[in-house]
Amino acid sequence: MSLQIRERVSLKPFNTFGIDVSARWFVDVSDDDQVRAALAWAREQQIPVLPIGGGSNLLLTGDLDVLVMRMASLGVRVLADDGHTVVVEAQAGEPWHPFVQQTLGMGLAGLENLSLIPGTVGAAPIQNIGAYGVEIKDVFQGLTALDRETGELRDFGLADCAFGYRDSLFKREPGRWLILRVRFNLTRTAHLHLDYGPVRQRLAEQGIEVPTPADVSAAICSIRREKLPDPAELGNAGSFFKNPVVAAAVAERIKVEHADLVGYPQADGQVKLAAGWLIERAGWKGFREGDAGVHRLQSLVLVNYGSATGAQLHALAMRIQADIAQRFGVSLEMEPNLY
Ligand code: FAD
Ligand code: NAP
Fold first, then answer.
1. In whole angstroms, what is the distance from residue 70 CA to residue 53 CA?
2. How is residue 241 annotated by DSSP?
């Protein structure tokens, strides 16, 4: 199918903050040939390209003089099955949560804790998405990406991706790699991760003693629906800041004044602080200025009540960062990608 490149397209429906900026050029790409054709067109016109998936990890601060290339390739297939481990490959444009549900429907475990995360399969490795004690790296088999510098396809294994906490090689080399499809090692026998947050308790409340992966998914969906704003109703990009990982001495220093500091010791001796706790303690929970605000239930989530601009949300984020640095001596790093 030929490419349909459109001019001056509002990006409001294509970012979960619902920010109304426009792309000079916009195209949906559904397969490798369309990806290559769109990149060739942009090269000829000397226009930068910005790939997007579901737009759930973006903060757009102005009109974009680029070709926005929305990854819309679909398809899920089984590549290998040894009776225990099943390798499943999904195209980059597959919406993440329906893909998780599809694998659970196939009787496969591994992705249940990552239920209800918005976005696409192709973007999931970029920040090594994680929730409720599981990260994509835990079930990652490999991916195929296009090197935009050379035009060549490259297969990445787990060790090649340098996955870290909400981080990967792809995040550290922005603009270079275009992820086309991702492969997952899923299993017929479940090793469930229930010891994180209120998961086990929610299952108990539901009277489930021996949960299946589908039960865990349903419990996590119900917890998330209670705590997190639905972008269809209130614009947001999920957690706006990463949880800062600090030296144990820093955590101890803060604890002298704040005995109830929430922190989780890491294997390397450092401590991961709950950024939401720091922001709430600093008094930002529920703050609103114009249409930009901090969610009233979850202080890690910045929200757009309607017509906030990306610049206003960014300004609010920087005020929060400065306040947290001044109060606690801790620097907060933004999680969404700023354009
Ligand atoms: P986009 O926002 O479209 O893009 C993100 C970045 O990836 C951009 O830099 C873009 O250029 C690049 N990109 C997109 N697709 C590709 C591709 N195929 N190849 C190369 N680059 C690409 N995240 C978590 O980790 N855990 C959570 O629990 C979680 N919960 C969330 C809850 C809510 C309500 C919201 C709104 C967000 C949440 N997020 C969470 C953040 C977000 O959903 C994830 O980071 C998701 O993987 C982003 O996918 P996307 O398709 O929307 O990416
Ligand atoms: P929560 O359960 O209220 O916990 C607050 C923070 O403490 C979380 O950010 C989590 O860190 C950390 N935490 C909780 N239990 C932990 C444990 N047993 N060991 C280590 N760290 C622990 O968090 P929440 O806001 O409701 O989110 C629930 C999960 O969904 C979290 O994993 C969170 O990361 C994920 N989530 C992510 C986004 C996003 O946009 N990135 C948005 C919504 C939810 P971690 O964040 O490191 O897990």
1. 6
2. B
Report the predicted TM-score, pTM, of the whole model to 2 decimal places: 0.97
For residue 328, give the nearest of 267, 241, 266 by alpha carbon.
241
Among 195, 239, 262, 277, say which to mutate for ligand 2: greatest number of ligand atoms within 8 Å of CB. Answer: 239
In this structure, the residue with its CA closest to atom 35 of ligand 2 is: 131
205 CB-side CA count, 13 A: 11
Neighbours of 152 (CB within 10 A): 9
For tokens 């939401």, name the residue.
276
208-250 pLDDT, tens digit each:
999 999 999 999 999 999 999 999 999 999 999 999 999 999 9
Amino acid at 206: Q
Whether the CB-CB separation of 339 and 11 falls below 8 Å is answered with no
Q: In what order do the strands lie in the sheet with 76-81?
A: 76-81, 85-91, 177-187, 140-147, 153-156
Say if strands 140-147 and 177-187 run parallel, antiparallel, or are unpaired.
antiparallel
